[in-house]
Every structure is written in structure tokens, then in C-alpha cells.
Amino acid sequence: xxxxxxxxxxxxxxxxxxxxxxxxxxxxxxxxxxxxxxxxxxxxxxxxxxxxxxxxxxxxxxxxxxxxxxxxxxxxxxxxxxxxxxxxxxxxxxxxxxxxxxxxxxxxxxxxxxxxxxxxxxxxxxxxxxxxxxxxxxxxxxxxxxxxxxxxxxxxxxxxxxxxxxxxxxxxxxxxxxxxxxxxxxxxxxxxxxxxxxxxxxxxxxxxxxxxxxxxxxxxxxxxxxxxxxx
Length: 231
Known about the structure:
Cofactor: FMN
Number of helices: 6
Helix content: 25-40%
CATH class of the domain at 23-138 and 184-228: Mainly Beta
InterPro entries: Pyridox_Oxase (IPR000659), Pyridox_Oxase_CS (IPR019740), Pyridox_Oxase_N (IPR011576), Pyridoxamine_oxidase_dimer_C (IPR019576), Split_barrel_FMN-bd (IPR012349)
Oligomer: single chain
Number of strands: 9
Binding site for substrate: 21-24, 79, 136, 140, 144, 205-207
GO molecular function, one term: pyridoxamine phosphate oxidase activity
Radius of gyration: 21 Å
Domain Pyridoxine 5'-phosphate oxidase dimerisation C-terminal: 186-231
CATH architecture of the domain at 23-138 and 184-228: Roll
Shape: globular
CATH topology of the domain at 23-138 and 184-228: Pnp Oxidase, Chain A
Largest sheet: 9 strands, antiparallel
């Protein structure tokens, strides 16, 4: 039995996907609703996304620029946030790790489509210290630690079978042992934002966009200024 889709049906499905329109409703984001601290505002929205059933609300699209000035994006998971910034973990020898070593700035996009919201974060990125990376590594499931050790992320491999064989070898090496060493190449990054945009979808594409910009000249005043952008 063929799994091929009828060409006419495929064309109709593609056309529908490209031309469909959805009105995002009347939920609003006003300046009076906004907390003066963007991290508090982010925590509120993250909690709401979780409460309202957004799948993987801590998933974010990380955008970087490599040493050759080529941009790239991928989805990673947020694993920490406080007034120091947004934390994620990865293989530092991966494509994203090499890009961050060359150009230590990045953007994060939280695409909460279900509730018609986005948060876009831009800032400088630095590695977290070994103690913090070790502490998070210890919380990861056994299988995730084995997989991260086995995989040289972003590098070519001949087949899936080769990767699975490496996993089997590590499972034998660590049989009965839960204390799997964190590879030196694997660790955390913290993005310290200078810009955070909160985006709320609205009717007729008249979306609300409120942006926090870090104010380098704030002195004793508020460290952030807020402005509204046109949709």
C-alpha cells in the first residue's frame, strides 16, 4: 500500500495552510498591566502558558550567528530564569556552541501559539560556571546523561546504528552506576538580556507589543524603560 498523498489533495492542503486566517481575539496587553520588572512579567506569562496547556512552555527558539556570519536557529529548553538572565544547557562543541564562542550574543523566542503570545529576548551570552552545570547535570535522567555523553552534537555520523552502538557501550561502562561524569564539552549558558519584547495577538492583526530596553544611563532610576511598538 502506498503512503503517497494524492497530488490534488496535497495541493489543496498546502493552499489551505498558506491562506488560512485566524483572528487572535480581544485579550490585551496594556502598559498598566505590565510589571516594571520584565523578569517578573516573564514568570507570570510562563506560569500562565503552563496553566493554559501550552505544550512545552519552556521551549524557545535560540538564534545565533556563526563565525562566518551565517545565522541559525534551533529549539532548546529554558532551564533557569532570574534577574541574572535566561539559562539553557547544551554541548558547547555543537554548532550553537561554536557560534556563541564566536559571537556571544543571541535571541530567544518563546512561541506560545495556543494563547497568542510571544516573548522575544535579546542579549549577551556567557557560560555558567562548572558548579552550576554539574548541579543541573545531576538532575537529568540517566538516559539523557548517557545520550549527551554518546553524541558529539552537530557532527556527522555514518548511521543511526553507530550512535546506538556508542550508547550501548556507555550503558555497559556505567552498568549499575548512576554517577555519570559530565563531559567537559557539555554545560550551561546564561543570556543576560538588554531587550525583552512581550507580544500579545489581537483582532485584525493590531497586536500589542511592549518592549523593555535596558537603560544604561538609569543611574538610581529604573533599570528598564518600556515603549510600545506598532504591530
